[in-house]
Amino acid sequence: MNPSDWQKQAKANQKKYARLLDIRDKNRILSKLPELHVEAFSKIDCLTCANCCKNHSPRFKQPEIKRISKVLGMKEGEFAVTYLRLDNEGDYVTKKSPCPFLDTDNTCKIYDDRPSDCRRYPYTDEDVFYKRPLLTLKNATICPAVFYILEKLEKVV
Predict the structure, then answer these.
(1) What pTM was estimated for this model as a whole?
(2) What are the residue boundaries of the structural domains of the chain, listed by start?
(3) Res. 27 pLDDT band, cuts 50 70 90
């Protein structure tokens, strides 16, 4: 999959994807997601992309801040001041992009302790996929797996 091609297609297909996510029978989408999720990630290697880490910041909840700061050998306050800021919604997010924990080989320096948002991203195997259509539409332009799943979903729903 050519990175520029799928991203251009994802941007061009936003209205089509919005209609797809707006179907009344949400259970049809939900029933297809697990299989499509596995299929997409069998074809797409996140380590060749890392667009999520380059373009998004996860929310860092207090237990995650506590756990990650401990792993890094830092005090919670020091961790927060060094890496985080409060966004408009009052959530702790990284100060800058790409994520400061993204290594040069696209691996995560805190992978085993990463925040829940990172573990769950891009939400392609859960109901967030259709319950938050604006997020899914945005993710389609960032994550090739979301694009792949929307393209496949259109053919089976």
Answers:
(1) 0.91
(2) 3-53+121-156, 57-119
(3) confident
